[in-house]
Fold this sequence. Notes:
The complex is a heterodimer. By secondary structure, chain A is an all-beta fold.
Amino acid sequence: AQSVAQPEDQVNVAEGNPLTVKCTYSVSGNPYLFWYVQYPNRGLQFLLKYITGDNLVKGSYGFEAEFNKSQTSFHLKKPSALVSDSALYFCAVRDEGGGSYIPTFGRGTSLIVHP
Amino acid sequence: DSGVTQTPKHLITATGQRVTLRCSPRSGDLSVYWYQQSLDQGLQFLIQYYNGEERAKGNILERFSAQQFPDLHSELNLSSLELGDSALYFCASSVEDRHQETQYFGPGTRLLVL
Lengths: 115, 114
């Protein structure tokens, strides 16, 4: 069975500082990992995904995520946060060893970037 | 803009009523997924269609049903509505039905049941 956890409901960071939004996962096979962002009253927007290869994945809007197999984590990072990055962030996982192609989403982490 | 469209954007209705939500996937996408987002339950997968056929079912109530038409648009039908059905309903689409596929989400339909 596949599962994903976002341990922080909210992350606060000052503008210009680096940000990290945490995600850990559990799968029986190889993981396929995704990050999405949701702005208020909008749908989820795809940021980046890890399929295989480089552990550091670069995505949209300057975001990147680091895949760590030993720690079963896929944390989202950005070197310098912007106020406009304030939004709800979702991590999702698909298990190559599972019988379904339906991803499991985390409960989301609210990122608040203070001016 | 993801290329996925949903109508209507907002819907206000009364308990016991029936509504239909519509989704048009991105051009070329064969797979359509429906999700329900509420504050207490997070993002819940409801049902998936692939090229007109039901492919996977999640936490979808028996009062809810969906279909995908030959032109690949999809409709989600919600009947005998209850207050607890108030939520955001998202449609997503992907090209194929594989592990590495990215889902692209529509803007959602906000349903309020009074």
